[in-house]
Write a structure and sequence with these properties.
By secondary structure, the protein is an all-alpha fold. It has 16 helices and 3 strands. Strands 1-2-3 form a 3-stranded antiparallel beta sheet. Strand 1 and strand 2 form a beta hairpin. The chain is globular, with a radius of gyration of 22 Å. The structure holds carboxymethyl coenzyme *A (CMC). Carboxymethyl coenzyme *A binds next to loops. The site of carboxymethyl coenzyme *A has 19 residues, from loops.
């Protein structure tokens, strides 16, 4: 392969961004200049969503207005509810998220308006309605009554309420909020780059987010948090973990929840999420997954020098919170809508069509023979 080819765009800088900075050399991540850990400690998810979308942390009034707006947009249309009810129960919820955003695009009165003001209106609707659509599917596929959103509840509380019919204690809600903050934004990852690529042809925001959801679904990206849980379920108990992980490495298997294209000595989001995973395990009085977690991590670092990424602690945390495994990546979606949207705004503001080149390695020029001679 020619040396000019940068397979997977590895190490290639394709544009500028002011939204987040990933700093693998000092194991840090900032959103608009604020360290993600600092935001986790001092803010709720809504404040961080505002920051990512607007560039500054909100004051009290700005936050109240933002929450009011998000609250107002939560209701989903009857036709979307009917569509969700008619989706096969076996469908993956990521495909439901993709379809729901697509249907929202069909219904949005600003659909063909790409102005910054219209785009912000559309984002607020996608941000507020996607969790509602997902929770509706969570219940509908179990044959349970769909629970409408509750205005008085925060973004995270409302998601628990719509899925389970109750809100857990505040420490569990905080752990969920922290996971949303850590998932909200991460520079030019695959799904964000997908959203920017779609936007670069001046296509619409619902299309860009639909494409980003499809991209996030893959197990090498957001889908890894579900794969981590499948792996832990296969391991079953801590006593099996050492043998399991050594076998996996002997077989040269890819171990989900480990490794990262940018962080090579540890994902900056992991220590914070690991701490909250521990808190949730303690509240739930279930230490099994923590023990498996620690054994697998130790062997991965000792044998391969490969560290966990954020999907490693979020997987078992969501499991302990009671979510079905195939809802882990959709939870990632409801948070990352903020990051994707900010990147879509940024792409629009200084657009250049994304159109790379390819080095052709197929057949040389040849003549077409008529069908009856082939
Ligand atoms: N398990 C075993 N070996 C690994 C792993 C892993 N998880 N990750 C990397 N390696 C090995 C890989 O086999 C390769 O070895 P060799 O040089 O001998 O062929 C070497 O490390 C370099 O890996 P790579 O796949 O070339 O690196 P990449 O930058 O292309 O891939 C990655 C990054 C995230 C796709 C990869 O680490 C991976 O497949 N991880 C598992 C999936 C996962 O957890 N994804 C979540 C990513 S971060 C959060 C998110 O986006 O949701």
């Amino acid at each position: 392969m020619s040396e000019d080819i940068k397979k997977g765009l590895m190490g290639v800088t394709v544009d500028e961004t002011a939204i987040s900075k990933v700093m693998p050399e000092i194991n840090s991540l900032t959103y608009r200049g604020y360290a993600a850990q600092d935001l986790c400690a001092k803010c709720k998810f809504e404040e961080v969503a505002y920051l990512i979308l607007n560039g500054e942390l909100p004051n009290k009034k700005q936050l109240k207005d933002f929450e009011k707006r998000e609250n107002k947009e939560r209701k989903i249309s009857k036709s979307l509810i009917n569509a969700i009810k008619s989706i096969p129960k076996t469908a993956h919820p990521m495909d439901v998220a993709r379809t729901a955003v697509s249907i929202m695009g069909l219904e949005d009165k600003d659909a063909s308006n790409n102005s910054p003001q219209a785009n912000m209106r559309k984002v607020m609707r996608i941000f507020a309605k996607t969790p509602v659509a997902l929770a509706a599917f969570y219940r509908a596929r179990k044959g349970k009554k769909i629970i409408p959103p509750e205005k008085k509840l925060s973004f995270s509380e409302n998601f628990f309420h719509m899925c389970f019919g109750k809100v857990p204690n505040k420490d569990i809600v905080k752990a969920f909020d922290v996971s949303l903050i850590l998932y909200a934004e991460h520079s030019f990852n695959v799904s964000t780059f997908t959203a920017r690529t779609i936007t670069s042809s001046l296509s619409d925001i619902h299309g860009a987010i639909t494409g980003a959801i499809a991209s996030l679904k893959g197990p090498l990206h957001g889908g890894a948090n579900e794969e981590v849980m499948h792996m832990m379920n296969k391991i079953k108990k801590p006593e099996n973990a050492l043998k399991w992980i050594n076998n996996a490495l002997d077989n040269k298997d890819v171990v989900m929840g480990f490794g990262h294209r940018v962080y090579k000595s540890g994902d900056s989001r992991v220590p914070t999420m690991r701490e909250y995973f521990g808190k949730v395990a303690q509240i739930k009085k279930d230490k099994k997954f923590e023990k498996i977690y620690d054994i697998v991590e130790k062997v991965m670092i000792e044998r391969k020098n490969i560290h966990p990424n954020v999907d490693y602690p979020t997987g078992p945390t969501y499991h302990l919170m009671g979510f079905d495994t195939d809802f882990f990546t959709p939870i990632f979606v409801i948070s990352r809508i903020t990051g994707w949207s900010a990147h879509i705004f940024e792409q629009h503001a200084a657009n250049k069509l994304i159109r790379p080149l390819a080095s052709y390695n197929g057949n040389q020029h040849r003549k077409v023979t008529q069908l009856n001679q082939r």
